[in-house]
Structure formats: structure tokens, C-alpha cells
Amino acid sequence: MKCSPILFFSFLFYLLSFPLLAQVEAEKGYYIFPIQTGKTNFLSGTMGELRPGHFHAGIDIKTKGVTGLPVYAAADGYISRIKISHGGYGWALYIAHPNGSTTVYGHLLSFNDKIAQEVLKKQYQEKSYTIEMFPDPKDFPVKQGEVIALSGNSGGSGGPHLHFEIRDKEQRVVNPLSYGFKEIKDDTPPSAVRLALRPMEIDSRINHGFQWTDWPLSLKNGHYEITDPIAANGKLGIEIMAFDRLNGASNKNGVSSFELFINDSLTYQHHLDLLSFVESRQILVHTNYEIEKLRRQRFAKLYLDQGNHLAFQQQAYGDGTFWVEPDSTYHIRIRMTDAYQNKREVRFTIQGETPDRSEIPGMDKSKAPYGFKLAGNILKYWEQKPADEYKESLLYEGHARRIKTADYSNENSQYYLIDLYDGIPDSIKISSNTIRPPFQIEIPAASNINFFHKNLKLKFTKNTLFQDLYLNTDYQYDEKLKEEIFSIGETTIPLKSNFYAELKLQQAYEQEKAAVYRKVGKGYSYIGGTWEEEKVIKFKSRSFGQFTIKYDSIPPKIHPIIVNNKKCKFRITDERSGISSYNAWINDQWLLLHYDYKTNMIWSERLDKTIPLKGLLRVEVTDQIGNKKIYEKHIP
Prior knowledge:
By secondary structure, the chain is mainly beta. The chain is about 5% helix and about 45% strand.
């Protein structure tokens, strides 16, 4: 059976809060809390929380670090869906209710006996641990408060807990905390950590320079603030790093609502009350993906960036960006509200100033004599040779040459800004230094484009990109590692969907044991690929980075833990490409194996538990490249 990748799907979709809250208010009391009912509970995750690659749906309920607690049906209904997967929600149940809603219970340890018996039969019928069932309403009717399962840690869970969702008639996830469960206590307002400003156009300035800038926030007099006014000019966007805590728990959860006021005028708002699974990856443009990659800090944008089509703001307020005019003062308030209506504000002031071509000290310090950085479509480059007069740089594009004067300077460097919409220069000369921007082509978002460059072919579909891309690629041969390395794009650029690549290799490979891998940190992640010719391999990827060809000729390892008449348990591992499939047979009869990728454990479950495991046991584990390991033992 194939190991499913960890799937975590969720997507933020905002409807105006008034209709939703009216619906919630009318149905309070319809559901009971699904675990430890009537007792105070604590959460490790809340609705709409910003997670890597997705918005969190529903709530995560702590189970005191243990598994096996009774899980109750939140309301009358019937089991409408049963799913077992290696990742995602692991062992999960879905209950359809008479009011048209559905409740979801994830990361379970086991199902109640009636459900478990039918699931086990289905697994043996399909000879697969992973299954999905859609029972008829008459198969598994349930009453409110009935035990349907035991809590666990299955699937993509980081520890024992119950994942719980309430979905509406359209299978969108509604915030369970809106239903007034008394088991959850919260009188703690949200917290803000840092605030950032982003220049949105080439003439925008923050403290007289063109750079994304952030500040720590201080809590004073009941609100967060930046003490000193910020000098700025032009079109800006605001980003915030914030979290919420509930009573009795130290977890940093998500903030339900943000409202941005500029001089007391509501400019932007969003409410994390309703989630849809259609476009989960749009969180990658709702947050600052580059900063998350570089600094491991997650800033939410209080504006709509290119590629963000999440309808969580009222269009009457525009896209959330705003203009700062010289000699004007802007008093900014950001109101944060959690699901229990606890509120707290962030306050600061922006003073509009005409850029005086003198940036504040200390910005963009670098040991290199010159450098460049791309921000959207604006290329910023600099030279560390300050002078009394602003120097000119020469831009070469094809046979054309144009002169560009420095836009501003500080005590260290002179800075230049150009808009790549006007063309990508082949080279830039400042004094005796030459900068060669690596960008080879502009690829507009939502377009189908094929790109050919030396020993590389790339295909971008209309669904690949969130935002316009200035693509850079490179090829190197690492003499030390004896590896061909293909660099495609920047890891700080998020992708909506796959791009397709064809590598024309310079070296010959033993194709049966060779595949494409992407460099991740100090290691490598298996990609795979299809060999087309002796030195041509095709693959697809949903992340940019460095790609190379690596061998995997080592089969997986099978380490027996328990092998007896009642149960077989093994630890399985693979050093490079990863586990692809696993199976077991007892006297040539297929034997179900459970699998937990987090612990690398597989263990048996018999269809008829009265029949002992006796005879020849055969366990077979295969990795992604096709290497196979077989374990055999005769059980007396």
C-alpha cells in the first residue's frame, strides 16, 4: 500500500460577521463539547491559526498528554464519513447532523466496536491500511453523548489531542468557540509582538529609505505601541506578528479578528470565523513568506497582496494599503479581538515627510562592496562608497544604455532603485564594480509559459504562481560532491502549484537507482522524476530551490520488536528516499499492518482475533526508488 503524504488542507474565507454570528447565536446549545464534557478543557490550537502552509481549521483540544479518552458525538446524527490516513487527521470520523452541519473528530486512537469491526473488514477487503468510507445514514446512527471513539495521536499530530470541527451545509468550517462552550475559559486579550511596514511602490519610503522595516511593540497603559513617530512617504502596507492565549494554557494561538484604523477611519478588517478548503495555500501570500523563511517569524499582512483572493475583507475599504503624504500625521490603531471578544489595540504614529535622500544610519549594512535585493518588481542595488555627490550608475540592456542616479544614501552606501517592469538590465556598473542581476525572464502570474535556458526547461501553468516572478536559474558542478546542482528560483518565493522541469544532465547515471532530490537545510528531500533519455529527467515541484541527482541503492531496514502468536511489531526506516509501501503475509494470506510514520512503527491486526498468528510470516518494505527489504520468520 502507498504511504500518503501528510496532507493538511484549510483555507481562509471571510463572510461578514453579522449573518454568521446570528446563525451561531441561534444554535448555541445544539452541540455538546466532544471530550471531557462538563469539565474545564484547554486548547493547543484555535480556529484560523496561522500554520506552515495552511490556516488551522477547528480547534485542537488537549488530552493531558495521554491517549484513550472517550470522544462523544456532539449532537444526534449519523457517521457520514470514515477515513484512515498516514498523515492529515489520521483516524477520523465525520458525523452528519439533522440541521445540515457536520462535525469532525481527528487524530483518533480507535473507533467504537461497531465502527471498528466494519472498518477492519473494509481494510482486509481492500488490502490497505489507508481507507475511506461513506456509510449510509442507517449504518451508523449516533445519539448526542454516545462514545464514538477514543482520542489519540494519529496522522499529522504533534502530540495527543482531539481535533474538532463544526462545518456548515457547504462544508465550510465554522469557529467552534462561537457556540459558547463553557468548557473553554478565556478572559485574556490578544498579544502583539512586532509590527512592520512595507513600501508598496518605488517612491515609497520608510525612515527615508526603501526597505521592509519592523519594530518591537511595548505594552503600556493597556495597549501596545511604538513610542516614537515613524517617518514615511508614499504607499505602504502594515504587517503584524501577534498571538492569543486562553486561560490556563501557554500555547500561542491565533487571533480571530484584526481591524485597522487610520485617523479613526476603518481601512481594513478580517475575521477568522469561516474556513473553506478550496484554496488552502493562499496563506502563503496572506503572511510574509520571505520573512518566515529567513527569520522564522510569521507576520500577517493587513492588506491584500497580489495573488491573495481570500474574501475576508469588506471591499468598500479597498485593499488595506494607504498613502502617506508629506507634512501629514497618521494615527494608526489596530484592534485585535479573540473568539471570546477580548480586545486589545496596537497604536503608533506615522509622520509624512518628503524624502531628503538621506537614509537613517545602519540600514542594509553589508561587508560586500556592493549588492542588490529584489522586493516585488523593485530592484534595489547599492555601493559602499559614499561620496559628497550622488554617483551615477550605468544600466545595460541589450544594446541600450541608460544612466541612473542614486536615490538616497547614508554614511555607508549609496542606493539605487529601478522598476523591473521597465526592463531587466543585463548588467549594472557603479564605479569599477559590475552587478549582473541573475533574473532571466519575467513570468506574469496566471500565465502559461515555457522557459528554456541552457540545460534546463521549465513549464509554468496559470496556477503555478501567486505573484509575478523574476526568474533566476543556475547550473554548477560540485567537484567535491561530484554532483550537478540546478538552482531554480528562490526558496523565499511561495508557489501556488507545481512547476514542471526537465534537466539535461552532463553526467551519465544508473537510472534505476537515481532520482531528483531537493536540498532542504543540510539534507535532501526526495522528489523522484521520470527518465526520458540517457541524460534527461523530468519532474515537478511545488517549491523552488536547488535540485540534484542522488543515488539510493540501500534497501529499507526492518527491525523486529515483537513477533509472536498474538502480535507482530517492527520498526522500519529508510536512509534516503523514504518508505513507499509495506505489506505482510502469514502463510500467503494478507495481514493488516498499522503504520505510524512519526515513530516508524508498523504492527499487525488480525481480522479474526481468535486465530493465532502461526506459520510463515513475510514482511516486505519498499522505498521510493524501488529498493526492497524482506523479513521472514516461521512462527511456531
